[in-house]
């Protein structure tokens, strides 16, 4: 099975083509504000490197949040266009479970994204991958009380926080992620939508 993985839920482009558990090509770069312009050309580059076209993909796995509102829309748009126009099966995962799945540490995994204004996007997963605390947009001060329930844990993040956390840098393990979710149920491309876990600023003002 040849899988295209896309995650643009932050300022990073995390994307890869994996075939039968073997990594063919990948990109893991922080493009900041330029992500919207560079994402599609970089994905197309991976296909060119392997003499493939998007129609040669058997499945697309796309991260649909939480994270950057703009970033999430970039990846979902690319994935939906590929899936719908070429009739490729597609499914979604969230950015927090992708982070936890990539870790090799035999600890409780706490992926964490800075949502600003004292809030974070976070969840808690056991070393075996069981979700112990559902993904939420939550005040960090409140979430720290949840963290106190666990002793042997790691915090996974590429963000900065005011609190003095010991952070493990997140680097996606594309092979592990795609193998873990390759059999997840396919979706209608039109049903693939962002899961922000919080209201947009415009919605909050309303």
Concise account of the structure shown:
This protein is an alpha/beta fold and 206 residues long. It has helices at 35-49, 69-86, 95-102, 140-147, 174-181, 201-205; strands at 2-7, 12-19, 22-30, 59-63, 90-93, 108-116, 119-125, 131-139, 153-156, 167-168. The chain has two domains: 2-95 and 172-205, ATPase, nucleotide binding domain (Nucleotidyltransferase, domain 5), CATH 3.30.420.40; 96-168, Nucleotidyltransferase, domain 5.
Strand order of the largest sheet: 3-2-1-4-5
CATH architecture of the largest domain: 2-Layer Sandwich
What's the number of extended β-strand segments?
A: 10
CATH topology-level fold name of the largest domain? Nucleotidyltransferase, domain 5
Oligomer: single chain
Identify low-pLDDT runs: none
What is the overall shape? globular
Largest sheet: 5 strands, mixed
The total of helices stands at 6
Cα-atom Rg, whole angstroms?
17 Å
- Sequence of secondary-structure elements: EEEHEHEHEEEHEEHH
Classified in CATH, the superfamily of the largest domain is ATPase, nucleotide binding domain
Integer tally of domains: 2
Please report the first level of CATH classification, the CATH class of the largest domain: Alpha Beta
Q: Strand percentage, roughly? A: 25-35%
Distance between the termini: 45 Å
Structural class: alpha/beta
* Helix share, percent: 25-40%
Residue-averaged pLDDT: 95
